[in-house]
């Protein structure tokens, strides 16, 4: 019986030993993915920002920016038919308004990417501010199990891809994170497709005035799930040259359109940190807890199997064992 039990335990030990790396290196890359129907809303603010108001000129205000990302399941299923892999389509909108409730800017986006790796997928409908784009690099989300290295990050305002640099490890609200930073140098960009007061962008271009933009982008990213737990931007935009600037700011060649330090609002920081903490546990279960647990269980079962096998080979330990010696003859009766 001990030998049978030993063989059964050995079989389970081999099973769990084989299952441990399969979960980590085979199942996890296929099962860990961004859900296609995800919906996320984020509110950011820029306290005492400088903006340009066509009616009031340059003014100081507290700016609120509402960012939404909504998974478009119908579009993702269409693209999956030709892409041959799991696809996520995010329809995004960034809407900014001043302290008086007046719209400052509104920028729509469609971001299409691989549900597992976060790599961009190029398909019809990919756009930034109503303009077709061909993204390179990540945007919004880092890959699962983010590495300590620089990544290529797409900037929707300039529609360019630039490195976002890994700057080290930090602890943010109880979560161990990687800190990344990107600087977009001053460069010419298009006027937003939606202007305050409904002014057509073509009208602005007709004055010979150009729009210029720069930003410093900062992200604190949970390396397990690849989700940012916090972000900031030091964002600046200017109008330069042309008759519009000359008329609005005589004697100057540039006019500040926006200058502010954009940060996530406190209540959304808390909810985001709580969400990321729950998401990272699911990833850790498949990359650490279950594989290492099965590996440890395999060692325990193997040790128990060897112990039972050794016991079964020791003479006199098994009560069912029989004596192989021949019985002594009994004396014959008289």
Write the layout of secondary structure elements.
Elements: H1 2-31, E1 39-53, E2 57-71, H2 73-83, E3 87-97, E4 103-114, E5 127-128, E6 131-132, E7 151-155, E8 160-172, E9 175-189, H3 201-205, E10 210-221, E11 228-240, H4 242-248, E12 254-264, H5 266-313
Helix pairs in contact: 1-5
Give a written overview of the molecule.
This protein is an alpha+beta fold. Helix content is 30%, strand content 38%. The protein has helices at 2-31, 73-83, 201-205, 242-248, 266-313; strands at 39-53, 57-71, 87-97, 103-114, 127-128, 131-132, 151-155, 160-172, 175-189, 210-221, 228-240, 254-264. A twelve-stranded antiparallel β-sheet has the order 6-5-4-3-2-1-12-11-10-9-8-7. Helix 1 (2-31) runs antiparallel to helix 5.
Largest sheet: 12 strands, antiparallel
Q: What is the radius of gyration?
A: 32 Å
Measured between the Cα atoms of the first and last residue, the distance is 45 Å
Estimate the helix proportion, in percent: 25-40%
- Poorly predicted segments: none
Q: Helical stretch count? A: 5
> What overall form do the CA principal axes indicate?
elongated
Beta-strand content estimate? 35-45%
Average pLDDT, rounded to a whole number, is: 88
Q: Helices and strands: which structural class?
A: alpha+beta
Largest sheet, order of strands side by side?
6-5-4-3-2-1-12-11-10-9-8-7
H/E element order: HEEHEEEEEEEHEEHEH
């Amino acid at each position: 019986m001990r030998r049978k039990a030993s063989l059964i335990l050995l079989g389970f030990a081999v099973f769990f030993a084989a299952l441990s790396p399969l979960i980590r290196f085979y199942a996890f890359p296929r099962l860990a993915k961004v859900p296609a129907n995800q919906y996320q809303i984020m509110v950011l603010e820029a306290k005492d920002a400088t903006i340009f108001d066509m009616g009031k000129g340059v003014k100081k205000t507290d700016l609120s920016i509402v960012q939404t990302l909504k998974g478009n399941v119908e579009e993702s299923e269409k693209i999956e038919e030709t892409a041959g892999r799991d696809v996520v389509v995010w329809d995004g909108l960034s809407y900014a308004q001043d302290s008086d409730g007046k719209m400052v800017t509104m920028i729509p986006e469609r971001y299409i990417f691989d549900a597992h790796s976060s790599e961009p997928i190029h398909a019809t409908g990919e756009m930034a501010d109503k303009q077709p784009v061909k993204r390179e690099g990540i945007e919004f989300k880092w890959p699962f199990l983010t590495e300590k290295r620089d990544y290529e990050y797409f900037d929707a305002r300039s529609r360019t891809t630039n490195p976002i640099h890994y700057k080290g490890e930090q602890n943010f609200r109880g979560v161990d994170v990687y800190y990344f930073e990107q600087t977009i140098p001053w460069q010419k960009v298009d006027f937003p497709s939606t202007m305050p007061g409904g002014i057509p962008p073509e009208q602005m271009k007709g004055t010979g005035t150009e729009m210029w933009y720069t930003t410093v982008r900062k992200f604190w990213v949970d390396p397990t799930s690849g989700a940012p737990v916090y972000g900031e931007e030091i964002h600046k935009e200017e109008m330069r040259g042309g008759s519009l600037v000359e008329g609005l700011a005589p004697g100057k060649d540039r006019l500040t359109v926006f200058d502010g330090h954009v940060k996530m609002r406190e209540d959304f920081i808390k909810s985001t940190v709580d969400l990321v903490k729950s998401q990272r546990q699911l990833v850790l279960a498949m990359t650490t807890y279950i594989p290492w647990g099965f590996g440890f269980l395999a060692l325990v079962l193997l040790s128990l199997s060897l112990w039972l096998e050794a016991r079964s080979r020791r003479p006199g330990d098994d009560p069912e064992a029989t004596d192989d010696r021949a019985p002594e003859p009994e004396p014959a009766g008289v």
